[in-house]
Write a structure and sequence with these properties.
single chain, alpha/beta, Rossmann fold, 37% helix, EC 3.1.3.2, Histidine_acid_Pase_euk, hydrolase, His_PPase_superfam
């Protein structure tokens, strides 16, 4: 029944804007059967492809354990599917398209589809960085659009947490001022229905916001954005050369480079977001996809995750703020559901500071790590979400204790050495100690050099939203 509701919601959300766009009949005739057919490769595409649930399910029920009552839930979510951003990502894809457009012979091999009436999905630069919606794609019936992911996520959240949601039908939610993030939040909130009045506050991503932000990495001038450089130089990237050589052999004179081959993976992922599938993805062998997947894991581990020495400091900002709320008695809170929307990098920093996906040994470039549970695309696909549950449970003697656990992309992710509570949760006192130990030598403001850009030392929007109206203008 719930799947029928989601399908209906998708159709309704699409139907409201179909009359405003020109529908290309070729998409409806030829593309619809292919939509979603490449789901098996999403896990290799650096988190650029559509949302999927965490693929290793430990079978722990998502339901709150019996004898327990959910008293708080926190959502930390990434925006839904989008177009490539302007700059290096879009430029890299466009450079390949330029070579294709200037090729004077017929295409052969896996590029033969370009001989047909192929429609380049990134021709309109005004779409760069935007959430994919029925209004900005050629096929508005694509169910993998970012707008539908936002709607679906909201409906799923309502189904799972309706009881606690209805305790406070008027509440506040928060989003960064990135337009795609803000739009995702709006689709999510709209899906909750008109019984809820949600005050969506928009917080600037500007570095001057310091710690009072959903994007604390922006306020960290000391962050090394290329911490992975030495590591990546050791990783065997001949698979990229193999791709370009193969395509150039099939199409003499095309002159694709190793860099072009790398950028084709971006083309593949983002085209799926726009069209629902991509013929460019068929260029790659499964071996090449796996090697690219690990390429992305390495890059992320050292640039955005615990391989970067400041990841804990940056991630400590949302972790500490959430911990403060978890330690606040519910009768002292105006709401018990906290919705926050941001980007993949911020979620990765948050997960690093939480200590989830950090148990495996560090990733190394000499060979693919087949054991690790750290995979960028598994943690932050488009529409990624981490939920924090706090529930109170009664013991046989009538006393009540509080517990905390985390759900990552629809799968319960217990904390190592802190999962002995009901539903493999961590008792709140133990979780306090867990965080204290992780942040013993961590100080976001001093380690990040925040004073260079801001004098704001702590996150406060979860508490001062009644007296401070956060309404930053949206930016792409």
């Amino acid at each position: 029944m719930f799947n029928q509701i989601l399908t209906l919601a998708s159709i309704v959300s699409t139907a409201s804007v179909v009359r405003a766009v020109i529908i290309d009949s070729a998409f409806l005739e030829n593309d619809f059967s292919k939509i979603g057919s490449q789901k098996d490769i999403y896990q290799y595409l650096y988190g650029n492809a559509p949302h999927f649930s965490y693929p290793v399910n430990n079978s722990i029920p998502l339901d709150i354990p019996e004898t327990c009552e959910l008293v708080q839930v926190h959502l930390y979510a990434r925006h839904g599917e989008r177009y490539p951003t302007s700059g290096s990502t879009a430029n890299g894809i466009n450079a390949i398209w330029y070579k294709f457009g200037n090729y004077t012979s017929s295409f052969n091999g896996s590029l033969a589809f370009l001989n047909e009436e192929y429609q380049y999905p990134f021709a309109n630069s005004s779409n760069y960085g935007l959430l994919t919606t029925p209004a900005n794609v050629a096929n508005p019936y694509n169910p993998l659009l970012g707008s539908i992911t936002g709607t679906t996520e909201g409906l799923e959240f309502l189904e799972r947490y309706s009881e606690i949601l209805y305790k406070h039908q008027n509440f506040t939610a928060w989003t960064s001022n990135s337009l795609r993030v803000h739009d995702t939040a709006e689709y999510f909130i709209e899906a909750l229905g008109d019984k809820f009045k949600v005050n969506l506050q928009t917080i600037t991503e500007d570095p001057s916001q310091g710690a009072n932000t959903l994007t604390p990495i922006n306020g960290c001038p000391n962050w090394n954005e290329s911490a992975s450089k030495a590591i990546m130089a050791k990783y065997d990237q001949t698979f990229l050369t193999d791709i370009s050589k193969r395509l150039n052999t099939e199409n003499p004179g095309l002159n694709l480079t190793k860099t072009d081959a790398l950028n084709m993976f971006n083309w593949c992922g983002f085209e799926i977001n726009v069209r629902g599938y991509s013929e460019i993805c068929d260029v790659f062998t499964i071996d090449e996809l796996i090697k690219y997947g690990y390429y992305g894991d390495l890059l992320t581990y050292y640039d955005e995750f615990i391989g970067n020495p400041l990841a804990n400091a940056v991630g400590s900002v949302p972790v500490n703020a959430t911990l403060t709320l978890l330690n606040t008695p519910e009768d002292k809170l105006d709401q018990q559901v906290f919705l926050s929307f941001t980007h993949d990098t911020n979620i990765l920093n948050y997960a690093a500071a939480l200590g989830i996906f950090t148990d495996s040994p560090a990733l190394y470039p000499e060979s693919i790590d087949w054991i690790t549970d750290f995979h960028r695309s598994w943690i932050v696909p488009q529409g990624a979400r981490i939920q924090t549950q706090k529930y109170n449970c009664k013991s046989s003697n009538g006393t009540s204790s509080s517990y905390v656990r985390f759900i990552v992309n629809d799968v319960v992710k217990p904390l190592t050495n802190c999962s002995s509570g009901p539903g493999f949760s961590c008792s709140l006192p133990d979780y306090n100690k867990f965080v204290e130990d992780r942040f013993k030598d961590v100080d976001f403001y001093s380690q990040c050099g925040v004073s260079k850009v801001s004098n704001i030392t702590e996150l406060s929007f979860y508490w001062d939203y009644k007296t401070h109206d956060y309404n930053a203008p949206c930016e792409i």
